[in-house]
Write a structure and sequence with these properties.
8-stranded antiparallel beta sheet; 28% helix; 10 strands; alpha+beta; two-stranded antiparallel ribbon
Length: 229
């Protein structure tokens, strides 16, 4: 069983990650909720999937099946509500943080980490650039966002520690606790935006100095807005 932990993310960090690593556009359509079960269809870059989640005596069980693309489009047409987002898989240690920028029905930025067991999920300490955790808040599931909407999300303060932590992550440096085994994405990540990079000896190097300067400007603007007149 896959266990998830989900966190809010400041828009500036989400934009930086997508700029550097690209992303994959996904659309999910949800059918009306039923007692102890829910179902939805997901359209990805190279495949489409049908999901069924049931709640029983032993907890939640989620099944998925790949379906023809035409069937997925037909199901999306009759779904009760949809959520449209771009996903970037960002390596953290042996696994990935899944950074989602939801654009419909409202703009929202989230980061999700998946674990193979409850013990590994509980033992994971969020990275500094993660925002407040919303794992236990039912409003922040894709299904709830699609079917019931969401009021304004809380503002997430920026800090030097969070920015440095994100830059470390982009450079492949992680604290020891981040070396956890999580599920790897099964679909090829297709850039929705391309990063500025230099190829050297077959290795791609990201110009993080430029990105750090841009992020510092974003932080200064945010801090200025918060100062009294």
């Amino acid at each position: 069983m896959t266990v998830h932990r989900r966190f809010l993310l400041t828009p500036s960090f989400a934009r930086l990650i997508r700029r550097e690593r690209g992303g994959l556009r996904l659309v999910e359509g949800f059918f009306p909720e039923q007692e102890n079960r829910s179902s939805w269809v997901r359209l990805e870059e190279e495949r489409s999937l049908l999901f069924l989640k049931t709640v029983g005596a032993h907890g939640e069980v989620e099944d998925q099946a790949e379906i023809p693309l035409g069937h997925a489009h037909a199901l999306l047409d009759v779904c009760a509500a949809k959520v449209d987002y771009s996903r970037t898989a960002l390596p953290i240690g042996e696994g990935h943080a899944l950074v989602d920028e939801i654009t419909r029905p409202r703009v929202l930025h989230l980061v999700t980490v998946e674990f193979a067991s409850d013990g590994k999920a509980r033992g994971f300490r969020p990275l500094e650039w993660f925002g407040p955790e919303v794992t236990a808040d039912p409003r922040y599931t894709n299904q709830a966002i699609a079917l019931r909407g969401l009021d304004e999300a809380p503002e997430i303060p920026l800090s030097d520690e969070a920015l440095n932590s994100l830059i470390d992550t982009l450079e492949g440096r992680f604290p020891a606790q981040a070396q956890v085994a999580v599920n790897r994405p099964k679909t090829k990540q297709v850039p929705v935006t391309r990063a500025k990079a230099q190829a050297s000896g077959g290795t791609v190097k990201v110009n993080l100095d430029e990105i750090e300067q841009a992020m510092m400007r974003e932080m200064e603007k945010t801090l200025q807005k918060g100062k009294p007149e």
